[in-house]
Design goal:
There is one protein chain. Helix content is 17%, strand content 42%. The protein has ten helices and 25 strands. A 16-stranded antiparallel β-barrel has the order 10-11-12-13-14-15-16-17-18-19-20-21-22-23-24-25. A three-stranded mixed sheet has the order 1-3-2. A three-stranded mixed sheet has the order 4-6-5. Helix 6 packs across helix 7.
Length: 680
């Protein structure tokens, strides 16, 4: 690159400029004009390899060190040539890239642009190291970007003899439009791999493991085997940090609440292809349970709260034990707020106090809710809870529900939850159900043992039921009534493995019901029966904000031919949560009089795909679905009734609200399904 005249006039400046250019080239920069960085506006010079800065138009002036602009005064564009993962990191964090995105980038001082360009290679190399690329080579090119020339314009011709001479021929109007650019080229090199790992465990855990303590040795071996950057794996800063954090979290979960790193080192070998990791972990002492300090109690017993701990003095305070204690207290329903914590003070680790902070719920509370569902129409419920009945550690719950076709009284008296998450209960349900052709009145007494956790629930109970089932005339008056009785032993079980109990999008839930007993009716002799029912619901996020949900349920009542069982033991399909496009409980066999009755077998299936309408409204979704199923007396009669359609969802803080338009293929018309409710 030739030096401008001003450089020739001042040799010392020329030498300084050449030296600076050499330093920039050695650092991976393409040298810009010799004196332009030190002296007034750049002068015309022959371009070198297309990288020289374009000269300003004649008579124009430009500040020293300014980024070159095109004819319209636009700033150059930045082009980053690097592997995709590194390019994304550079576009986000490189100072030059961030500056070019500024709304007022055109007003940035020219000297600052020069500094940003000069600093870009070093910054790029540092960012490459974050991704484990320690041998990256970086260069910067600044110059014009030649776009494709415009098509030539043909010369215009006029009739008759031409008066133009050869020197007056129409010129070629192709134009080269120069748009300046800054190109950052990165030869990333290979990713570094972990060649050697040394993880030393000190403190009480290391000493106990060396002395043969099996539990301590198991914890230490688990730490080493679960280390997130084993030998041979790719090394990145993020993986290095995550691996160290995971070890500390795992150790604190095992009861070593003061665990910390005494020292860590990641040594990169000279070729940049391998890394050696050296870590020293200080476990600190194992924290063991001391006194349980409870604050916030007003009405409930201190001994009972302490009794829910599930651990005794001297046992290790693992994270699992503390979380289980807190969950037991929450599941009692006696407290609005619960906190269980241990202050990690090493001086008291041998008998660490467990701090329990509580805020009691009111002894009595009432909840009123109204809503609408296409199954039963408008509905309202009132629920009353009393959390210390007659001063005893008992909870009572009474719920009254009303809808045009269904009225319910549901009451339960239960003990408080114990250390095994279990409670004893006595319940009564009285229900009246009506439709155009049938009236069913039933009473069900239940005595059982329940286990309540977020992930798993089960209920073992004995139930006695008495029901009266009548045909209904046009005036809603019952006739031809049957009295049915049943006594049964039952086990219900629920498994939940979902990301959210209220609004799940990933995981599954499963339900199983088993029952066996004896029944009789006025039209049959007493006899045994059995009941099986199962349901599985799966949730799958499929990427790009698409969510898939599938459901499958099946059930069967085992009885001899002619033996009567109450309607509550039988099955029906159709409605909001069954096969959409059909009326509630309408997909079932018909009686001799032509009315719908319960069937002894059931199967339904559903598949639904949904996504938010927009990214800005993540709580509002649309969905498409297809349902199928039926209840019948025999599996050979359970041909599927199909329903399919579209819906909208509002994933509100209190649960999903749904509106579905479903086409019932068997009926040949559509049906709206709506489920909405408000609690006070």
């Amino acid at each position: 690159m030739s030096a401008p005249a001003s450089c020739a006039a001042r040799p010392w400046r020329r030498l300084l400029a050449l030296a600076r250019a050499a330093l920039l080239a050695a650092g991976g920069m393409v040298a810009m004009q010799g004196c332009a960085l030190l002296d007034g506006p750049p002068q015309p010079a022959a371009p070198a390899d297309g990288d020289a800065l374009p000269s300003p138009a004649a008579g124009a002036s430009a500040p020293a060190s300014t980024l070159p602009r095109d004819a319209e005064g636009r700033l150059p564009r930045l082009e980053i040539r690097a592997p995709s993962d590194l390019r994304a990191l550079l576009e986000q964090h490189l100072d030059l890239a961030r500056a070019m995105r500024l709304p007022d980038a055109a007003s940035v001082d020219p000297a600052e642009w020069t500094r940003l360009i000069e600093a870009a290679p070093a910054q790029a190399r540092e960012l490459a190291r974050v991704l484990g690329r320690f041998s990256a080579q970086v260069s910067v090119e600044v110059g014009p970007d030649m776009e494709e020339p415009a098509a030539p314009t043909p010369a215009a011709t006029a009739p008759g003899p031409s008066t133009a001479t050869a020197s007056q021929a129409v010129p070629d109007t192709r134009q080269a439009i120069a748009v300046t650019r800054v190109v950052l080229k990165v030869q990333a090199g290979p990713k570094a791999r972990v060649r050697r790992l040394a993880l030393d465990v000190q403190g009480e855990l290391g000493s106990a493991a060396d002395q043969g303590d099996e539990q301590a040795r198991e914890v230490r071996d688990r730490l080493r085997s679960s280390w997130g950057l084993p030998e041979g794996s790719d090394f990145t800063n993020a993986a290095w940090g995550d691996a160290k954090t995971a070890v500390i979290a795992q150790l604190r979960a095992a009861g070593y609440l003061s665990a910390t790193w005494s020292g860590t080192s990641a040594q990169v070998e000279t070729d940049g292809r391998s890394v050696r990791l050296f870590l020293v972990l200080d476990s600190g002492p194992l924290y063991r349970a001391g006194d349980i300090e409870v604050t916030g109690l007003v009405h409930h017993d201190l001994a009972q709260v302490r009794g829910l701990a599930g651990f005794t003095t001297g046992q290790a305070l693992t994270e699992a034990r503390l979380i289980a204690y807190q969950e037991r207290l929450q599941k009692t329903g006696l407290f609005d707020q619960v906190s269980v914590a241990v202050v990690p003070a090493q001086a008291s680790a041998a008998a660490a106090p467990v701090q329990v902070r509580l805020q009691e719920s009111t002894l009595q509370s009432a909840t009123f809710s109204v809503g609408y569902t296409s199954n039963v129409g408008p509905k309202a419920t009132v629920e009353h809870r009393y959390r210390r009945v007659l001063g005893w550690p008992l909870t009572s719950r009474v719920k009254l529900g009303w809808a045009a076709s269904e009225q319910t009284i549901d009451g339960e008296l239960s003990t408080y939850l114990d250390t095994r998450f279990e409670r004893r209960l006595l319940g009564l349900v009285v229900k009246r159900e009506t439709d155009d052709a049938e009236i069913v009145l039933s009473q069900r007494w239940r005595l059982g043992l329940a286990h309540d956790t977020t992930a798993d629930e089960w209920l073992n109970f004995i139930e006695a039921e008495r029901a009266r089932e009548c045909d209904a005339n046009a005036s809603g008056v019952g006739f031809h009534c049957e009295d049915l009785n049943a006594l049964s032993l039952n086990r219900h079980r629920i498994w939940r493995r979902v990301d959210s109990v209220l609004l799940p999008t990933d995981g599954y839930s499963a339900q199983l019901q088993l029952g066996a007993g004896a029944t009789d009716g006025n039209d049959s002799n007493p006899g045994p029966f059995g009941r099986l029912y199962g349901r599985v619901i799966g949730y799958w996020p499929t990427g790009r904000n698409w969510y898939l949900q599938g459901k499958l349920e099946a059930g069967q009542v085992l009885r001899r031919t002619g033996l009567q069982v109450p309607d509550s033991q039988l099955f029906r399909a159709g409605g909001d949560d069954s096969v959409r496009g059909y009326a509630y409980r309408s997909l079932a066999p018909l009686s001799d009089s032509g009315t719908v009755r319960g069937g002894t077998v059931l199967w339904t299936g559903s598949l639904e795909i949904a996504r938010p309408f927009t990214r800005e409204t993540p709580a509002f979704w649309w969905a498409a679905f297809v349902d199928a199923g039926r209840a019948a007396d025999h599996w050979t009669d359970a041909d599927p009734a199909w329903g399919y359609g579209l819906g909208v969802r509002w994933r509100s803080p209190v649960g999903p609200l749904k509106l579905d338009w479903a086409w019932g293929q068997e009926l040949g018309h559509a049906r709206l399904h709506l489920n909405i409710g408000i609690a006070f």
